[in-house]
Amino acid sequence: MKVKIEVIEEHLKTAAAKLVSEEEAAYFADLILETHLRKAPRMNPLEDTVADLKVWAEAGGRKLKVEVDKESVLLLDFNELAPALKIKYIHDELERRARKNGMAAVGFRNSSAVITLTPWSEGLARRNLIGITMFNGGTRGCSEPCR
């Protein structure tokens, strides 16, 4: 079945906008599609995105919590939510803090898995920032077979 990329992007934006702001949903959909187009053959970022959306949809009132908020550092507790839906917020904070202070770091814990780091670094590169992205597993990291 052939589906136009624009149709997939619109579906992702619509689904994500039910869970986060429209701006965040559009940013998320754009980066996820870019990741899917550049993906390694063994990965399926769109499939993983559907899982991220499901985690948020079934959150039962769980919310993101800011644990540390300093001039150049932000630490977030995702309360087992998928961090990709808040990627715009994180990139906005990194850019704002880095442009003001020369460098910035955001860490998060207690999240569901991050399957690929591409959107995390790609979004920063688009803003002419240098980013180092790392992930060590998450709350349910590799509870299913790791890809």
What's the helix and strand layout?
Blueprint (H helix, E strand, L loop, with lengths): L4 H13 L4 H17 L6 H13 L7 E5 L3 E5 L9 H15 L3 E5 L8 H8 L22
Parallel strand pairs: 2-3
Antiparallel strand pairs: 1-2
Helix pairs in contact: 1-2, 2-5, 4-5
DSSP strand content: 5-15%
Number of domains: 1
Overall radius of gyration: 15 Å
Largest sheet: 3 strands, mixed
Shape: globular
Order of helices and strands: HHHEEHEH
Distance between the terminal alpha carbons, to the nearest Å? 24 Å
The total strand number stands at 3
Structural class: mainly alpha
List low-pLDDT spans: 141-147
Please bin the fraction of helical residues.
40-55%
Mean pLDDT: 87
SS field, number of helical segments: 5
Polypeptide structure, described:
The chain is mainly alpha-helical and 147 residues long. It has one domain (5-125). 45% of the residues lie in helices and 10% in strands. It has helices at residues 5-17, 22-38, 45-57, 87-101, 118-125; strands at 65-69, 73-77, 105-109. A 3-stranded mixed sheet has the order 1-2-3, with helices on one face. Helix 1 (5-17) packs across helix 2, helix 2 (22-38) crosses helix 5 (118-125) and helix 4 crosses helix 5. Mean pLDDT is 87; it is low at 141-147.
At a glance:
By secondary structure, this protein is mostly helical. Helix content is about 45%, strand content about 10%.
List keywords for this structure.
single chain; 147 residues; 45% helix; globular
